[in-house]
Design a protein that fits this description.
mainly alpha, TPR-like_helical_dom_sf, about 75% helix, nitrogenase activity, Nase_comp1_CS, P-loop_NTPase, Tetratricopeptide repeat protein
């Protein structure tokens, strides 16, 4: 009768809460999650059931009841499963909030959900009306007479308590009693098996000798007199019971148990990988730290406790809490350093950790401030004690990564350069100790130099990195895997330096090493397969079209052997997607694209967050294969576009560049084969991706402009001429915003944009004077930089088209002669 799911008592009240939930439902945000929380018996289930009954179909509603009883991996899997359905609302319920909710809130927000919570009061405002409605409902259900008593006074009353009193009244039993007596009266009449809150209540008034530990701990949150029994049960058996009870029970213990049982539970929880990413270890650590701090005056002990708490909260996604704990750790070490300068290295290390915590929160200014303070501190330490130079070099290396994460490229370059110089000096003095560090940091320096366009210096740094790795591996074969990894990783970079042959040689050398390692230990098969994939791409780029497919096929064969788990199937799907690019055989490419789609579709069903982008890329490749062979493609493209539209921002920022390139290729193919509407939709998606990622991607601004140019061409092919011209004009404007004119005049891509815009102005008879100037400039730039003949032809054709568009062609020709004369004089 008291089971909320049976709805014996009609839903009533909660008008304000329903209004707030309606506003949440109607909010324009596509994804939103709300936690409805309150003590047991306050009516959470009834409220959510009412919301479900009144829900419309515009947005999908996912309900996760008792969310505080879910382990994080299970809750994450549920959210991932629901993400495939487009705009939606996720409604969670729980008795508690605390750190489990903070962890969930911060992690789910990363998936682009707008997060919120709604706290329910324990009881309803109109107690008398609620009591009367409950009495009438129970009387009807039991065929009993009408009961019209006043509601009794119950300490800390909940809706559940009031309904218990109503049922007691309908039975004819006294209601002017306390909660314990109410439960006993109901228990005496109940012949069934109680569930949920009533089972907790029955246990509280008549605890058995051997209670169910989960039920006992849940009951103790409503019946505090049970807490000593909880402590008694878990003292001595805490470690054993920790393996048996629900994670929600352990979380409750973290908040309510005495220290002796909690310490026993902690000994089992901390090393258990099941809880590694859950908030539970952090919750237990916080209780233990709070207790220890009350009895400790040792600053070093306090600092170590805060550092431990910071690490555990960070693992649980408790980013705000981790930063707070890390700041307290720094404060403790600052006190120690003030007492004794010998403690400054501990303070500097703690500052480095704090920088990482602040990066996770996006608190850029604070990251820079604390990181630079740490570097200055290390400089002071190294000045006083030259033997700490390695720590200063390591600190500079770490701060370079933080600057890089914040998009501060020059600062990152300066820090990693200084680190490399220091490690180089140390490696010359103490090769056995520091040669590995120099090899590693030289490789990082090469990547940083490459990203800022200093390619010759990057090539030199990579050369020194590889020279050292070869020497290290020669002297100690344990480092052969590291040599092979660095050879494989540098291949793409060396190719971009304009040295594709050397790049292929480096990757080929890595393959030789990985083959030898794999023969001795099959664990290296994955890395061999990856190296073969990279080699196939380099061979294809070199025009060695006979060799590239063999390397790609061998990579596929190796991944097939490894496709016994999700990681292996993901590797196989990636190898197949690569085969599409290099096979040189339409039938092989179509089959590979289709298989990669099926593999990624299966992977995305169980883990959308990690595989949605690759599924979209596979769908793009498969669609391109279909369209060039005249097959129906609409369904695949629409699925891909829908998937792209629902990608969380973090995925777009991380993997958008690869996705955009796949879509760009598809968009061109669709346009060339007259699928204009689809091609425009695809390229518009490319434009959106580059617009989003451009601020954090060095190649993003140029890619964004080129995507706009492609969109303008696709719009032109669809005969949407005004839109096409306006889009091309935006590309021209962005070029001028991105670079000074002196640099623009060296860019072939800029000349292409000018030519395209000039041609479109001619076709729409728009701003022809300016169009002639821009088209003429396109010709000049292309000639000056020795551009490809077809590009020069495109620019000259744009000039002719603009002249033909003038009403007075003779005047236009004269204006062109003036431009030619002016440019000749300027060059002279």
């Amino acid at each position: 009768m008291l089971d909320a799911r049976q709805e014996v008592v009609p839903f009533h009240g909660r008008t304000a809460e329903l209004a707030e939930l309606a506003g949440w439902r109607n909010d324009p945000a596509p994804l939103a999650a709300l936690l409805v929380h309150g003590p047991a018996g306050c009516g959470k289930t009834r409220l959510v059931t009412k919301v479900e009954a009144d829900w419309d179909d515009e947005k999908r509603l996912v309900v996760i009841d008792d969310a505080d009883r879910w382990a994080w991996p299970d809750l994450f899997a549920k959210l991932q499963e629901s993400m495939r359905s487009g705009p939606q609302r996720v409604l969670l319920t729980s008795r508690t909030t605390g750190w489990w909710w903070s962890s969930t809130r911060q992690r789910v927000a990363d998936l682009d959900y707008v997060m919120g919570d709604l706290e329910l009061s324990p009881s309803l405002d109109n107690r008398k009306r609620s009591f009367t409605l409950a009495c009438r409902a129970f009387a009807r259900a039991l065929n009993a007479g009408h009961v019209g008593e006043e509601p009794p006074a119950i300490a800390d009353e909940t809706v559940h308590d009031l309904h218990m009193a109503a049922l007691t009244a309908v039975h004819g039993d006294p209601t002017d009693v306390n909660r314990t007596q109410l439960v006993r009266q109901l228990k005496a009449r109940d012949t069934g098996t109680p569930a949920d809150k009533l089972a907790e209540d029955y246990l509280a008034v008549a605890p058995p000798d051997d209670p169910d530990p989960d039920l006992l701990v849940r009951a103790a949150t409503r019946w505090p007199q049970l807490l000593p029994k909880v402590d008694e049960l878990f003292t001595g058996k805490g470690a054993e019971l920790a393996d048996q009870v629900d994670i929600s029970t352990l979380r409750t213990l973290a908040a309510t148990a005495g220290l002796p049982p909690l310490e026993q539970v902690a000994r089992r929880v901390f090393p258990d990988e099941r809880f590694a990413l859950d908030a539970l270890p952090a919750m237990i650590t916080k209780r233990l730290v709070d207790n220890n701090l009350r009895h400790s005056e040792d600053w070093l002990e306090q600092a170590e406790m805060w550092g431990n708490l910071s690490a555990r909260t960070a693992l649980a996604g408790l980013r705000e809490e981790a930063a707070d704990a890390s700041q307290r750790e720094v404060d403790a070490y600052r006190e120690l350093a003030a007492q004794d300068p010998e403690n400054r290295p501990l303070l500097a290390d703690a500052m480095g950790d704090l920088g990482l915590r602040l990066i996770a929160l996006g608190r850029t200014d604070e990251v820079i401030k604390v990181s630079e303070e740490a570097i200055e501190l290390w400089k002071q330490i190294a000045t006083d004690d030259p033997e700490t130079m390695p720590q200063l070099a390591s600190a500079l290396e770490q701060i370079s990564y933080r600057y890089s994460a914040l998009g501060k490229r020059e600062e990152a370059m300066d820090a990693i350069s200084r680190s490399a110089v220091m490690f180089q000096e140390l490696a010359q003095l103490y090769p056995a100790l520091f040669r590995v560090d120099f090899a590693r940091v030289a490789g990082a320096l090469a990547r940083r130099l490459y990203l800022v366009g200093r390619r010759d210096e990057a090539a030199d740094a990579m050369h020194w990195s590889l020279v050292n790795w070869r020497e290290i591996a020669r002297d100690d074969p344990r480092y052969e895997p590291e040599l092979a990894r660095n050879l494989a990783a540098c291949g793409g970079m060396i190719a971009d330096f304009g040295r594709p042959e050397r790049a292929a040689e480096a990757v080929e050398e890595s393959i030789v090493v990985f083959r030898r390692l794999t023969a001795a230990n099959p664990e290296f098969t994955r890395e061999l397969a990856d190296a073969l994939l990279r080699h196939s791409q380099l061979l294809d780029g070199l025009g060695r079209y006979d060799e590239a497919p063999f390397a790609a096929q061998e990579s596929v064969v190796l991944w097939r052997k490894l496709a016994v788990d999700a990681a292996g199937r993901a590797g196989l799907a990636a190898a197949l997607l690569n085969l599409v690019d290099v096979a040189g055989d339409r039938a092989v490419e179509r089959a590979a694209a289709a298989e990669s789609v099926e593999l990624y579709r299966e992977l995305a069903r169980t883990n959308p967050v990690h595989h949605q982008v690759n599924l979209a890329r596979a769908l793009a490749a498969h669609s391109e294969q279909l369209v060039v062979t005249g097959k129906a493609v609409d369904e695949h493209v629409r699925e891909m576009l829908d998937l792209c539209a629902r990608l969380p921002l973090q995925l777009v920022m991380a993997f958008g560049a690869d996705l955009a390139m796949s879509l760009h290729s598809l968009g061109r193919a669709l346009s060339q084969l007259d699928h204009h509407d689809l091609s425009i939709a695809v390229i518009e998606q490319v434009v959106d991706i580059w617009r989003t990622t451009a601020p954090r991607n060095q190649s993003g601004p140029l890619a964004y402009i080129l995507a706009l140019q492609q969109l303008s061409l696709n719009l032109r092919a669809a005969e949407r001429f005004d839109e096409s011209r306006n889009t091309a004009h935006l590309a021209v404007v962005l070029w001028h915003m991105a670079l000074p004119q002196s640099e623009l005049d060296t860019h072939a891509a800029y000349a292409d944009t000018l030519a395209v815009y000039g041609r479109l102005c001619a076709e729409t008879k728009h701003d022809l004077d300016n169009a002639l100037v821009l088209a003429h400039r396109a010709v000049l730039i292309t000639r000056d930089i020795g551009g490809e003949p077809d590009k020069l032809e495109l620019a000259l054709a744009a000039v002719d088209a603009v002249i033909d568009a003038f009403d007075d062609r003779h005047a236009a020709q004269k204006r062109l002669e003036e431009l030619v004369s002016s440019s000749s004089a300027a060059s002279a």
